[in-house]
Specification:
The protein is an alpha/beta fold and about 425 residues long. The chain is built from 14 helices and 15 strands.
Length: about 425
């Protein structure tokens, strides 16, 4: 059955705009500590969803119930054959984790059936109130049941589009067939939603012309945005004479890990260090680079608490985001680490692919070009900024973050957009 056949006829009711908004959320969010070690778990994605739920529920006048899938790669990659489901809470929001059989093909079908059933029941309970369905990303076992339940119940459906599937590694076999189908299905589903929350405008313009949308590339809790550099702990701090470059995030080609390693190799002067915090497909490449060059240290995500990563960001001399503009996915995604980086008060060297809005550019040190030599030159320049210039840049960035990029502010904007769609 095609996307068009499944969600052909919208039936959205008129509602009382003054009543509190009832919201059902469908996503892949789990409580802290539940999914670490899974190959399918994204710490950044889980943090985004948790903050979205927390701040929509706390300050934006919405009543939310969440339905979620536990992020697991299909057996045998993750050694879980089935998940029984459970009731829990995420960000103060009651959350149902759906059961599923974790075998390729069966997993997707069992999840889609579970989401559809839960969302139809929720819609029946919330009848008469202004309401909407909100889905995080458009992975088909999430988005298709959301769209089907929305049309069957007369409820508008809105998608937060954080990622689209642009895998640079050609899959093979049965798994490859499913992934090729998914790459076609996700962009096609976008135009069937009643509204989109996009991280870059290119997603809406190119894949869903005519669908109402708002831009919300990311956010920070206000306390984190206000913290700044402060007086970071001396434990593990750089030694006198060292210049530390730090990267934190997923280790993959999209995030520019090969470019980072080549760029750091150009810094041959004594005293340079590279701290890498993360994990992912290029974990082995970083480990191999660290064996060749003892100045590189890899700190895997699964052994380093988030608070430690934030503390180290304040200790480093330069934070780096080397995403290549040439990677297609970087046209449609935003690196959430940039917000953490800017909040730390540490100078940030970053490329500026199309997914990074122009309003960020004044707060970044942008390389003259995206070559290893260009990025190495920008790292040298950033590491030798005076204390006064660093403080000035940090203060400007902090004021901007507090004014425009807190979760409190962004949740208000999203809630307003959802209400406009619900009307």
């Amino acid at each position: 059955m095609s996307v068009d056949q499944l969600v052909a006829a919208p039936r959205v009711r008129r509602v009382d705009a003054e009543a509190p908004l009832e919201l059902a959320f469908a996503g892949s969010v789990v409580p802290p500590g539940m999914a670490e070690g899974s190959h399918a778990f994204s710490p950044a994605g889980n943090k985004f969803q948790t903050n979205l739920l927390c701040h929509l529920a706390a300050g934006a006048g919405t009543r939310i119930e969440a339905f979620s899938m536990r992020p697991l790669s299909a057996w045998p990659r993750d050694r879980v054959v089935s998940f029984r489901g459970e009731r829990t809470e995420v960000g103060g929001v009651p959350t149902t984790l759906l059961p599923f059989v974790n075998l390729r093909g069966i997993k997707e079908g069992s999840l889609a059936a579970g989401f559809y059933t839960k969302l139809r029941r929720w819609a029946a309970r919330s009848a008469g109130a202004p309401r909407a369905l909100l889905v995080y990303n458009v992975f088909s076992p999430l988005s298709l049941p959301v769209l089907a339940a929305a049309r069957a119940s007369g409820v508008p459906a809105v998608a937060v589009v954080a990622d689209l599937p642009f895998d640079t590694y050609p899959p093979r076999g049965f798994r490859g067939l499913l992934e090729r189908m998914e790459r076609r299905a996700q962009p096609a589903a976008l135009r069937r939603f009643d509204g989109l929350v996009v991280l870059t405008p290119h997603t809406a313009h190119e894949h869903a012309p005519g669908v109402p949308w708002m831009l919300m590339e990311g956010a920070l809790p206000a306390a984190e945005a206000a913290a700044g550099r402060g007086d970071p702990s001396t434990a593990g701090a750089p030694a006198p004479g060292e210049r530390v470059v730090m990267y934190s995030g997923m280790l993959n080609e999209m995030n520019g890990i090969p470019l980072l390693l080549e760029s750091f190799a150009r810094l041959a002067e004594p005293g340079w260090r590279l701290w890498v915090y993360g994990g992912g497909p290029l974990d082995a490449a970083v480990r191999a680079a660290a064996r060749r060059d003892p100045r590189i240290t890899l700190h895997p995500w699964d052994v380093v608490p988030e608070a430690e990563v934030l503390r180290r960001q304040r200790q480093a001399h330069v934070l780096v985001n080397p995403r290549p503009s040439s990677h297609r996915a970087n046209r449609y995604s935003f690196p959430s680490k940039l917000l953490e980086y800017l909040a730390s008060g540490t100078p940030v060297v970053s490329t500026v692919p199309p997914g990074i809005p122009a309003e960020y550019h004044p707060h970044l040190l942008v390389p003259a070009d995206e070559s290893p030599d260009g990025i190495a030159a920008a790292l040298r320049r950033a590491a030798h900024l005076s204390d006064a210039e660093c403080a000035l840049r940090a203060g400007r960035a902090r004021a901007w973050l507090l004014r425009e990029k807190t979760w409190e502010r962004q949740a208000e904007r999203i809630a307003g957009f959802l209400r406009s769609v619900a009307r």
